[in-house]
Amino acid sequence: MRSFFAAAVTLLAVSCFAADKPNIVLIVSDDQGYNDLGVLGDHIITPNLDRLAKEGARLTDFYVAWPACTPSRGAFLTGRYPQRNGIYDMIRNEAPDYGHKYAPENYAVTWERIGGMDTREILLPRMLKQAGY
Fold first, then answer.
1. For 107-123, what is each residue's pLDDT tens digit?
2. Which of 57, 74, 90, 116 has its CA 20 to 30 A from that of 68?
3. Which structural domain, as residue segments, surrounds residue 109?
4. Are 20 and 48 found together in one domain?
5. Percentage helix, strand, coil for the chain under 3-state DSSP, each rounded to 5
């Protein structure tokens, strides 16, 4: 999955040099069904989203990496499965922070990964910035 993600960003970067850079509008929603927009046939009126969908590229055949929003967002931002990026459960405000209890050499995973995603992960915004966005 990571190599696919890197290839997609590389293709995006190469295409940017050949022509004007396209605008990227990423809309992330939670618990949205496939037909929940007017452009896809729903009764809900979404004229601005419908116009964006008609004028741009619609990517409609994707699946989430996990059946919960936090791990899916982490997978999207890193291009890595939740099992690999360290976020495989919901992150809640009341979740305890155990980082202060362990010395780096005694922590089972990595010190950088306490509390979720490894802080060394390269995320989509950085990749887009490197591509000139």
1. 555 555 656 777 788 99
2. 57
3. 2-26+63-130
4. no
5. 45, 0, 55
d(CA 88, CA 8): 24
> Residues 107-118, buried b or exposed e (16+ Cβ, 10 A)?
eeeeeebbebbb
Q: In this structure, what token pair is assigned to residue 106?
A: 């005694």
Is the domain of 73 the same as that of 104?
Answer: yes
Q: Please tell me whether residues 8 and 68 are part of one structural domain.
A: yes
Q: Where are the alpha helices (DSSP H) in the chain?
A: 2-18, 47-55, 69-78, 82-85, 124-130
Q: Is residue 73 located within the same domain as residue 39?
A: no
According to DSSP, residue 121 is labeled: P
Collapsed DSSP state (helix, strand, coil) of residue 40: helix
Tell me what the mean pLDDT of segment 1-21 comes to: 59
